[in-house]
Design goal:
The protein has 266 residues and is mostly helical. It is built from ten helices and no strands. Helix 3 crosses helix 9 and helix 9 runs antiparallel to helix 10. It is globular.
């Protein structure tokens, strides 16, 4: 799944760059809008079983979701995972939000160069995803994920030097590698921390909490670069990444061997 996600993130910018050779930017936006409408139509075509009491169903889902988050936060290694999710969001937001700013405003390059920079990030993440299955048979998830987060921090520190395009490609590739190294073992970690009956709740909690991190770092990355400049964005997001790694090390001890938790209450 990590490879599929990264292949999409790597191929989409390149495909967009190719299309921009033949069509205008406005037409490309229109095609994206059509794609979203088709996706919405496919979702509307799904037939769900009717419910006699929709309000009670919604209340039960909300209660199960909230209890899943509470149970999630009781597990030390999942608290560590949440801290690492903040590190991923901080580093990833720098790439996703500010690549176009760095390439097209700071370096004065074109949209194709922006696509190549995004592809470098995706390629780095794919390399991590391809190499980790064998590596994880010999090294613990914690070691791999902490190492990946450290690579992201080092890459952000290198970004503060504001390199040229070749340097940016290298930094973005390393950021992608660290990004993939943290992300890829996430499912294994959630499965090891849960049981069959509560696994869905744990995955839902991780989805919600990790996206809450992105909700904070996305606008922060854009605001910092537009208000104080790209170097300030690098420095601030590096600080968040380092603090997140430190918190993960504290709340997820190396000796921790959490047993699967009991099922959250319905």
């Amino acid at each position: 799944s990590r490879l599929a996600y990264d292949l999409e993130s790597m191929a989409s910018p390149l495909l967009a760059a190719m299309l921009l050779v033949f069509i205008s930017f406005n037409v490309l936006f229109a095609l994206n809008a059509v794609a979203f409408l088709i996706s919405a139509a496919l979702l509307l075509s799904i037939i769900l079983p009717p419910s006699n009491d929709r309000s009670s169903v919604n209340d039960a889902l909300l209660e199960r979701f909230s209890s899943g988050i509470r149970a999630y936060l009781q597990v030390p290694r999942l608290r560590g995972l949440l801290a690492l999710s903040m590190a991923v969001a901080a580093a990833g937001s720098m790439v996703i939000v500010n690549t176009v700013v760095y390439v097209q405003q700071f370096l004065n390059l074109d949209q194709s160069s922006t696509a190549l920079a995004m592809a470098a990030f995706g390629l780095g993440s794919m390399c991590a995803a391809m190499g980790l299955p064998r590596l994880l048979t010999h090294i613990s998830d914690r070691t791999v994920m902490m190492s990946g987060a450290s690579v992201m921090a080092i890459s952000l520190a290198a970004g503060t030097m504001m390199p040229g395009f070749v340097g940016l490609l290298l930094i973005w590739s390393l950021l992608g590698f660290g990004f993939g190294a943290v992300h890829t073992p996430t499912g294994r970690l959630l499965r090891a921390s849960s049981q069959e009956g509560n696994r869905t709740a744990y995955f839902a909690a991780q989805f919600a909490l990790s996206h809450a991190c992105w909700l904070l770092t996305y606008p922060l990355a854009g605001w910092l670069s537009s208000t104080y400049g790209l170097r300030s964005a690098f420095v601030t997001l590096l600080f968040i990444t380092v603090i997140s790694i430190f918190l993960a090390l504290v709340v997820w001890p190396q000796s921790n061997r959490d047993a699967p938790r009991s099922e959250p209450k319905n």
